[in-house]
Amino acid sequence: MAIAKRFGSGYHWTRLRKAVLLLAAILSMLVVITLQPTADNLTSFTRPTTLIPKLHRFADRSCNDPASINPYWHYLQPDLVQGQPTTWTPDYISARQKAMKRFLNSIPHYNTSFSPAGPDSRGIVTTVSDAAVRTVLTSLRILRRHGCFLPVEVFHFNAELSDENRNKLSQLHNVAVRSIEDENLLRGAKPKEGALSNYHIKAAAIVSASFENVLFLDGDNYAVRDPTYLFDTPEYLGKGAIFWPDFWKTHTQSRIWEIMQVPCTNEWEMESGQMVISRSRAWNAVNLAWYMNDPASDFFWKMLWYDKDTFRFAWKATKTPYHFIERWTAPAGFGGEQTGMWMFNRWCGHTMAQADPEGKWLFFHGNGLKAVDPRRLREGLGGKGPYVYIRVPNVPVGTEWKSPLLVRSYENFETAGSRLVCMTFETGWGEPDTRYEDVEELFPEFNEILLQEYEGAE
To answer: Which residues lie across from 438 on neighbouring strands?
Structure first.
């Protein structure tokens, strides 16, 4: 009850917001009922779908059953649903599909030379730039603190890592720093000119790794325990890959289903901040993911929000097995504190908590925290930060959910010249109720470990 009271501020604003959402939903349903378009064949290569209306319409009930039409889908970027309807003609889509098939046919058969560390080797792969080096160092130092001594390969673009920072990384135990622009790599990568991000380096790093068995971690991903055991889980041994869920689902009417020739499925999108992959067992799939992240084209990025879901669709298109973690992701962070320089009356989930195959929390992917010095959060939160609670959907592990998303909105706070991105996890449109799990009770020393290793990474 104490926690519920702590997070109960803003009651009248919440009621007003729910009323506005309800009105938007009613208007949306009226528009949808008026349109009543027929369902398209989302899996046909030979008969591409017609152009899709800008407004959300009733979905194929074999995929995301719209028991209640969610108005937030209206705010998706049109490219995430339609592609570019003025130029993506049936002939254009067919040409892209044929090019993808030609690439698949050109992939060399996997051989042991592609894993020079050995046929049973295991290792961690990550990426880095000068802007992210302290976060990466912190992540790796935390792993070593947990007793994880897997070898690590850190990939980078040539112009994005100074000699000084390369030396800092190389001084860590069993860490190799490698250029993804090395001409000897089978699938290297070049930086994308003018890009907001260079996320395509991730797929290239996995293809180019020395290890047969790869645990890929984003540089802002903090393990709360030693993750080495993932390689020995029945899920990994049985499928050869483990993927983790995101907060939302791919729109039923997205053209990605048609383009990749896969049936629409009611599952969460993939969050690529952590992946476990057997490169030999998923060789075609991981190469296709590299192709889908081609920096010369944003064809797939326009529909999949950069790299993250290219892996899931590459595995689906090549019919490569993977295990999808059943426990939903949950935002971790703080809220309701009013101390010092901080005046947060609302929940701020700056991190995605991800579980292992048994449903136990394993990773804190701090994608909203990475631009902020965590020491500042501790000061503002009276020594408690940056992880106070995990806000957990109050449903059994493995529950199927028809709603297309869990997280209601993002909010940005300017903090000491940096931006803290908060995921606000509400229950105003059919999402499940939530409960708060105390991070200090679950992982008594983690906040202190994070802050100590961040300090040591300076």
So the answer is: 389
CA distances from 185 to 130, 161, 207, 208, 349 (A): 22, 19, 9, 6, 39
Residue 337's closest CA among 12, 9, 1, 15? 9
Please give the model's pTM, rounded to 2 decimal places.
0.82
Burial class (CB in 10 A: 0-12, 13-18, 19+), 285: buried
Nearest to 214 by CA among 138, 151, 169: 151
Residues near 172 by beta carbon (within 8 Å), at least 6 away in sequence: 137, 140, 141, 144, 152
Integer Cα distance of 160 and 191 in angstroms: 9
Q: How close are the terminal C-alpha atoms of the chain, in Å?
A: 41
- Top-confidence residue, 405 or 110: 110
Amino acid identity at 90: P
The H-or-E segment that residue 456 falls in is helix 446-456
Q: 3-class SS at 394?
A: coil
Which class for 398: exposed (0-12), middle (13-18), buried (19 or more C-beta within 10 A)? Answer: exposed
Task: Give the distance, in angstroms, between the CA of residue 97 and the centroid of all CA atoms in the same chain.
Answer: 25
Amino acid at 212: E
Q: Distance between CA atoms of 421 and 368, rounded to whole angstroms?
A: 4
Distances, alpha carbon 194 to alpha carbons 7, 48, 113, 198, in Å: 42, 32, 35, 10
Tell me the CA distances in angstroms from 14 to 2, 19, 424, one per residue in order. 20, 9, 12
- Is residue 216 a contact partner of residue 241, using CB atoms and an 8 Å limit? no
CB 254 within 8 A of CB 269: no
Helix (H) or strand (E) holding 123: strand 122-127
Instruction: State yes or no: pLDDT of 4 exceeds 50.
Output: no
- Model pLDDT for residues 144-167, shown as the tens digit of each residue: 999 999 999 999 999 999 999 999
Amino acid at position 345, single letter: N
